[in-house]
Amino acid sequence: MRTEMNARIISSLLCTAIGGMLAGCGDGGSSDADSASQKQIAATAKASAVACAPAWNASTIYVGGNSASANSTNYTANWWTQGNDPVTDSGASGSGKPWTSSGVCGSGTPTPPPVTPPPVNPPPGTPGATTGTINYHLLLGAGSAQDQLVLDGGNYNDLIMSNIIAGVMYGHLVQQYYPGMQFQKDYLYGSILGQLLQENIETSLYASSGNLIDPSPDQQAVMGAGQGGPYQINNYAADMVSGSYAPAGHSLINYVAIQKNIGYTMATAAQQYTKVTPPSFNNKYYGPMLTAYFHYNDFVALILTGKGTGGWVTPWQPYYDNALANFTTLPNNFLDVLLNVAYNQGYYGTLMTSYSKLGATATAATVASVNAYSSVWGATDTYQQYPYQVRYYLDQLYGNPIPTTSATTFTTPANHVAFNIPALGTVFSNVFQTLAYVNGSGSSAYISAAQAQTAFNSALASTGVSATATLDLSNAANRAQIFSILESAIGNLESNLNTKFSATTNSQL
Q1: If DSSP codes are grouped into helix, strand and coil, which group holds residue 180?
Q2: Pairing mode, if any, of strands 436-438 and 133-136?
Q3: pLDDT tens digits, residue range 226-269?
Q4: Which residues of 343-469 form beta strands (DSSP E)?
Q5: Biased-composition ranges for Pro residues (predicted)?
Q6: 10 Å Cβ neighbour count for 461?
Q7: Which of 282, 307, 398, 416 is the most exposed place for a label (fewest CB within 10 A)?
Q8: Residue 44 — very low, low, confident or very high, per pLDDT cuts 50/70/90?
Q9: What are phi and psi of 366, to 5 degrees?
């Protein structure tokens, strides 16, 4: 009834406003009684109309949840925005637009918005602009940053995208092996990028015009014998369970998806640590994915090492197994800390055991304590600092509060990284074209651009994100959308190819 009445009121108002010339308004004339009735309806509608928010102004900064009105319509800001006209730059939730209409306001009679010249360049903080600075190569509370990544201009956008795609694959593999596993997506998905910033010599020298993560001769030390490239995965040829260089099922070369492009074979794997790192490790599309598999291999090896016939007691067990079981019911846990410790200090370092013990009996209070920067603030032990250095770099990237002069003094960085959806689709396609699968003929084949793009487009449809949207990685809601798109796209591709990205083989394909 309420909808029907509103429809009649709106119809009557339209008829009155234009002299009754619309179909359904009668013959254009009306009796005095009809006119009085229409005036009464108009007066009632005007009295009950929603008030208009302050008029939108191009020079005003709006943040998520702020309201503004234009052309007798109220709009709600979806994130930080300035200079984006809500009349022309609004859409439904998930559209990637900075504004969403919240309905007609006032009398319903359009009024022109204030005229303000549009900015020449995209203003900082809008989804279309990448701005800010990431400080890295530092000890929290024990030293200042040695390097900076200046985001302005978007030179690093595709490199950040490829690392986030690899990070989502990392999480996908973990959850495929261990259904129900929880973790902080921001930190686990971002681990690959954080590792690049901390372990690489100078990522700031990266140039988006090429495909190399390290294009400068100054950085080529990371491509030395056994070094593992920009991410320093320097025992990449070893079998992580047997401890030998003969691939026995838990070497990177055993994974179907990465074997074809890795740059050495099962036959040469045992000597690979004496040779220079294969060029593929320095490819901006393949290198991050290779590192994701390296970390996933750690996750699995920590479960399996020492078990089975002839097994031995490892210092991290049974605590690690118990921690994983506990993490399935413990939100915001520190799985990323555990796995980054395993990468940086190694399985047999004391931190692996101590964090596993904490995880085995962890409660929400334990999680809060471990997650706090104060737990390592001022420490000079680089192994202890490493997992938190990764988090610190990511918190800067995401616009999360970071400690400054003390572990309890925080500031919120004003960084923004624009993930333009067409560009993200291109990077997704380029990343997956470096990976392979076993096709219907039983042959190892690279994933095609068309296969990757189909999976990505389906993900956009299922998540309700426009194919022309731009999402801000530094905005929590936008970041969740980015993660959802990539999670869905990876799942789609796996289903379409009838493969599992965690599949292994003991044969050279």
Answers
A1: coil
A2: unpaired
A3: 899 999 998 899 999 988 888 999 999 999 999 999 999 999 99
A4: 402-403, 410-411, 418-420, 436-438, 444-446
A5: 110-126
A6: 11
A7: 307
A8: very low
A9: -65, -45
